[in-house]
Amino acid sequence: MIRRKILFIGLLGSLFQIFLGCVPLTKTILSPGSPEDLTTCTNVFPVGPWESVHKIEAVITGGVSFSLLGVTRGDPNKRRLHSFLLTPEGFILFEGLLGEDGMTIQKAVSPFDSPAFAGGLMEDVKGLFLPPPGKPARWGRTADGTRVCLWEGPDGFETEFWEAKDQDRQILLRDDLGEVIKEVSLKGPFVNGLASYIELRASKPLPYKLKMTLLQISP
After folding, report:
1. Looking at residues 165-191, what average pLDDT do you find?
2. Which of 20, 53, 119, 203 counts the highest number of beta carbons within 10 A?
3. How many domains, in total, are found in the chain?
């Protein structure tokens, strides 16, 4: 009898976990935003044509880590990005273009030549340096005064921009269940809209972490 009760309780616990996994997470409660809050929604992204150089430290599944250089040329008005990955010695491992017509891979050296890697890399670059298209679906402030702007994607995914009073900023990407699958922390000082330090943590489909230090920006 006791064994049956234990099995029954265990079954209830499993069903409860499954149920929780299927319920969307509660949306952030925001107080109504002002016009000023709306104008700051894209402060986290650079403005005008620019070129940046970052030192990138990557940590992938299994704790494997490596260092690269990332060069990005962007034009927010045309929603265009030109991205390079290089060895510390300057050898080009990857070169890709992203524009209104889609993505084009100019060069890719193994293991950076897989379609999944190319698509994921350019999605990360776009998420870091270009604001989501259109106007935020919601914006306002949390109870502690943090500014929040939220864009809804056609696939049910959401992009959130958080700006705390201390000027630290975050970008969150949530899936269609409301779970955070990518989290970006941006630290100042900010130069022409670019953070001096960026840390990206991804949890799905495979976990990885990128630490990016700004070395140079022009113009």
Report:
1. 90
2. 53
3. 1
